[in-house]
Amino acid sequence: MIFEIIRSEGLSHNSYFLASGGEAAVVDPRRDVDVYLELAEKNSVNIRYIFETHRNEDYTIGSVELARYVDAEILHGAHLDFEYGTAVVEGDTFRLGNLELEVLETPGHTYESISVAVRDTTVSDECLMVFTGDVLFAGETGRVDFFGPEKIPETAGLLYDSIHEKIIPLGDHVVVCPAHGAGSVCGADIRDMDTTTVGYERLTNPYLQMGRDEFTEHKISERLYTPPYFRRMEENNLRGAPVENPNLEALPVPEFRELLAESAQVVDVRNPTSFSSGHIPGSLNIWQDGFAAFAGYFLNYDDPVLVVDDGRGVESVRRSLIRLGYDNMAGYLAGGFPSWYMAGLEFNAIRSMSVHELRELEGDIFLLDVRKITDRERFHIEGSEHIWVGDLPDNVDMIPEKDVVIYCDSGYKSTIAASILESHGFSTTTVLGGIGAWLRAGYPVVEV
User: Fold this and answer.
1) Which biological process, per GO, is one annotated for this protein (predicted)?
2) Rounded Cα–Cα distance for residues 53 and 166 (Å)
3) 256 is in which domain, residue-wise?
4) 54 near 109, Cβ under 8 Å?
5) Domain boundary at 208, 238, 268, which?
6) Least enclosed by CB within 10 Å: which of 21, 114, 355, 426?
7) What is the CATH number of the domain that holds 200?
8) Other beta carbons less than 10 A from residue 56's beta carbon
């Protein structure tokens, strides 16, 4: 048996490659599919099945793209009218050499969610592993809020039953292969583990210790962010995304400026200190390693995307744009930001301050906390107001006409916020090191 986990950093997405007897299956592929083709070639196997555990919300699935290159059947749950592929139902089985793959209908996260149980029939009829999609994670369970708050009692109950009636009975020994790891927005607090087991989750996962009513109440009270780009992902993954993987081309300053004048959106992926020192007016800052996690909150799907990179190259940014469905890539600035200022063009800068300066600061300012609400509720700086950075574009009118001082965990999200507010005419200052530095300096916080 050949088993590989393919991780998509930033989105914390896991897809899987499974093979036996010269045939392979891919579970929940990402849209840049070269990795699966390379694995198939490396292992001299043919991809025959592509399983989708559900209509994914946080990335564009690559099933249609992968099926362009291989003779494979796309398989997904029957309780949603997909415009491509084949519907499967409880008990359907598929062979890969010595392996038997069985479909389990496990609704809750979505109504059409399925899990795929794997057995090596030459060894035992017992289940070996199960691909759970967004049903069960390491230390967490899937979110159930996508159909509106009025549906949560129903979907939470479905998820509870799926876990306790379909997954747990497979046996404590069974390896659990979830679709997401730590940091994904598809769960509140997923552990940093690639895989887990049914038994380990049964013993350690707090949500598996709850009864059905308690579990439902927990899901009703759960507060999770839903990035606006999810709507596009749901559409792409229902209809099938366009089968194209565009490139980001290097653009000299004159071409870059021309596109900028035509309402292109500029995202600068340098680190916060570099961006704050100087940047193209109106550009959005999302540091490169955080790009996949945050781009979908702020970039629209209509205007072309221009990139200013940090010297590490734009391949990871291009792949993130592909996975998030941003096909309207205009290009990146050849030579990076230095080519802009060396051309004698105007640029902006963002002020920053230390936590010591913030501690001594006097005057009429607006202190803005842009961390997640769950982090703020643990502790925050006295006198600060809160708007999660992902919600900031829709809540700019809540910011008074004052000097705005922004803090987050360490300084990365605060610079995103500063770049957004700058484009709306605000005067901003970021706190270097954020609340982490504030705590290490021994300054007090309000604990809730």
Assistant:
1) glutathione metabolic process
2) 14
3) 250-342
4) yes
5) 238
6) 21
7) 3.60.15.10
8) 24
pTM summary value? 0.91
Let me know whether 24 and 63 are in one domain.
yes
Displacement of CA 275 from its chain's centroid (Å):
23
Last residue of a domain, one of 175, 208, 238: 238
Per the domain annotation, does 244 fall within a domain?
no
Task: Say whether pLDDT at 184 is over 90.
Answer: no
Asked, for residue 265, whether it belongs to a domain, the answer is: yes
Amino acid present at 133:
G
Greatest Cα-to-Cα distance within the chain, rounded to the nearest angstrom: 75
Q: Are residues 273 and 391 in the same domain?
A: no
Q: Is the pLDDT of residue 278 over 80?
A: yes
> Which has the closest alpha carbon to 187: 201, 173, 166, 203?
201
User: How many CB atoms are located within 10 Å of the residue 362 CB?
Assistant: 5
> In sequence order, what DSSP letters do the residues of 127-152 get, joined into one string?
--EEEEETSEETTEE----TT-GGGH
CB 101 within 8 A of CB 93: yes
Residues 21-72: tens digit of each pLDDT? 999 999 999 999 999 999 999 999 999 999 999 999 999 999 999 999 999 9
CB 121 within 8 A of CB 70: no
Q: pLDDT tens, 101-112?
A: 999 999 999 999
In angstroms, the first-to-last Cα distance of the chain is 51
Cα within 13 Å of Cα(152), Cβ side: 18
Task: Give the CATH number, domain containing residue 443.
Answer: 3.40.250.10
